[in-house]
Amino acid sequence: MRYRHSKASQRDSEKAVEKKEVPLPQKGYAADDTLDLIAAVKTATNGTLHPDLVDAPIRRLDEPYPTSCSARGQLETQTQLYHMCKSAFFENGEAFRVTDDDYATLIDYIDDFECWTEERETPLCMCAPGNTDFVCMTQMSQSCVVNITSPPLYEGCMDRPDSDYYMYSLGGFAPCYYYDFNEVYEFELTLQC
Predict the structure, then answer these.
(1) Cβ-based burial of 83 (10 A; exposed 0-12, middle 13-18, buried ≥19)
(2) What is the mean pLDDT of each run of 10 residues along the chain (193 residues)?
(3) Which pTM does this prediction carry?
(4) How is the chain split into domains, by residue range?
């Protein structure tokens, strides 16, 4: 969470305290655009929440975890560092996960939030080559290069002299070989993917 800072005037407060304004707008997604950031529900109104946090978008981080994998993917475990916070003002006092940016901000408000980090084992799918996403259901496009090796069409014929018919020195798909389309020819090729 990023805040812009400005000095509060003596009229607004008895103490000249640095005031944090509303955070810069975010699109509602974490940095990698795959984790949902959901506004934490304010569930308590008794007590006094720090003025900087009254209108701040305190967000809960929810991340889907797979229970099975598709397309020959293997279900494995990983160790993740969770940033957790708990407040009497939000989520009925239950602890909830936040992003590291929100954690860095909320940890300074010790009267309103109790924040900590913990390591958790979570499942993930290790996808077979050619598949992706968190359960391996998306097949990645594959690009291949075909080289015709006999005759060696990929070599071109830039060594031929330029003529009125074709400028061989420019490269490209020069007419190096001539074929009768009524005949049968054998070609050899390599396929690199």
Answers:
(1) buried
(2) 37 38 37 60 77 85 91 94 93 91 92 95 93 91 84 80 85 80 90 86
(3) 0.55
(4) 23-139, 145-192
